[in-house]
Amino acid sequence: RLQDNLCDRCKEAHSRGKKTKHDEVVLIGEANRQGDKPVPEVCKLHPGKLCDVYCCDCDILMCLMCFSQTHKQHNWKHFEDEFQIKKQHLQEHMTAISTRIAHFKNVTSKHGHKTFKCNIDTMRKDVNTQRAMMKSEIDSIADAVLAELSSLEKEEAVVHQKDCQELEKNVRELTSLLEKAEMTDTTSTFEMERSLRTTLPLYDVNVKDVLPKLPSFVTGSIDRVLLTKMLGELHHGNQYEKTDIDSKHVQRLSKFTVTQQNQNQIMCICTVDDSHAWLSIYHHQGLVLVNREGVVIETVKLDFCPYMITMVGTTDILMTSNEPRTFVYKLSLHNKEVTTFADIRPHKARDISINERGEVFVSTASPDIVVLNQSGTIVRKMACGMNGRCITCLSSGYIAVSDLSNVSIVTDSSGKTKYKWTGELNNGQQVGSRDLCKMSCDKYDRLFVPDYTNNQVHVLPRDSTQATCLLDQKHGVISPTAVAVDTCGNVWIGCEDGTVHVMRL
Fold this sequence. Notes:
The protein is of the alpha+beta class and about 500 residues long.
C-alpha cells in the first residue's frame, strides 16, 4: 500500500505497528509497480537505501552513499533513465537470439547429414562387394589347388593299381615255376635247371623301385599391403598432407610436463589418435594416457617397468621391459590384463614395432632382430649389422634400426642393409657426436630421430642418406628421448625432464 522499501529491521517494526501490521510485505522483485516504472533494488552495503544511481564507467547500480564514497568522479545517470536504455538493448538482444535460433534451425534442416550417410552407405556396399569378390576369387584359387590334388591322387592310384597287378602276376608265375621245380624228377632235372636259368633273369629283384615323387604345397605369406590395395583404400579430408620440413615454420601446439613418482624421463610415446598418446616413463611401473594438453586421462599400473611400447590396432599394447629383458608383454586395454606375449631367450628385448602385415619386430641390443607372428611365435631372425637399440617398421616393408650414433635401413626379407645414415645433413654439414633415441615415422616413411646430445630431431626422408633438422632454438626442446607421429602428422617429442612438446609441421 505504502510502497516503501524496508530492510529486515524495518520490516520487523512494520509488522508490529498497529496501522501497518496487516500490510502485505513482499520481496522487492515481486513488488507491484505503478505503470511501467521500475522498482530499484535495496543496497546491500547500506540497508534502506535504494540503488537508484547507475555508474556509466563501472556499469553497475548503486545507492547515493556508495556513489559519494567511491564513484564521485565517475559519469552517472538516474536509474530510471538507464533502465529504459538497458530495456531497449535487452529487446535487441532477444531479437538477435531469435534470429540466430531461426538461422541454426534452418542450417540444421539443410545440413548434408542424409547425403553424407547415403555416401557412407554406398561405400559400405562397395567394401562388402569387394570383400565378396576377393573371397570368391580366393575360393576359386583354393578349389583349383584342391582339384589338382584330387587329380594327382587319382593318377597315382591308377599307377599303383597297375604296379600291383604286375607284381601279383610275377608272384603267380614264380609260384608256378617253384611248384614245377619241386615236382621235377631225376630225368628232367637238367632240362628244368636250363629252363630256370633262362627264365629267372626275367624277374630281376635288384631293379630299384622308383617311388612316385610326393607333391608339396608351399604356403604363401599374407601380404596385408597388397590385400589392402586389392580391396581399396578410404580417402577422406582428415588425412594430412605432406609438408616440407622447415624448422622455421614448425609450430608448437602444446607443451606439458608429466611426473610420476618423481620419475620424469619419457621413454616411449605411442599415439592413439591426433590428441591422445600413451607414455612409458623411466622406472615407472605403469603406463599413462594423456591428451594433447597434458591432462592424464588414464593410468594402468603394472608389476614391472615398461620400456618400449607399440599399439596393436586399438585394442592391445605390446611392451618390452627393463627387467626381465627377455619377455614381450601384451596389455589388453579392454580389461587391463597383462599376459606374456613371447619369450625370446637367449635374446634380450629392447625396442618393438609392428609392420602392416601384423608381424612383430623386436630389436635385441645385438645384430639380431627377432620376428614374431601375431601369436608371439618366433618365425625368423634377421641380421641388421649393428647392435640394435631402436626399431621402426616402415610402410615400404623396410625396417629402420638405430644404435647410439647411426640409423640403418634394412630390407624385410633378407636383412641386408639398404643404406645407413651416419649424421649427414642436407645443408652439407655433418652432425658430430650423437645419442639417438626412440624414433618414429610418418605415413610418408619420413623417419623422425631424436638426438639427445644435440637437442634436435633429425628427419630422414625416404630413400635418402641426408637428414633435415626439425627444430630451431626457439622451440626450446632439451634432451629429447622419444618421438611419435599422430594421425594428423603432428610430432610428439618427449624429453628427459618429462616435458612433452606437440609440434605441427
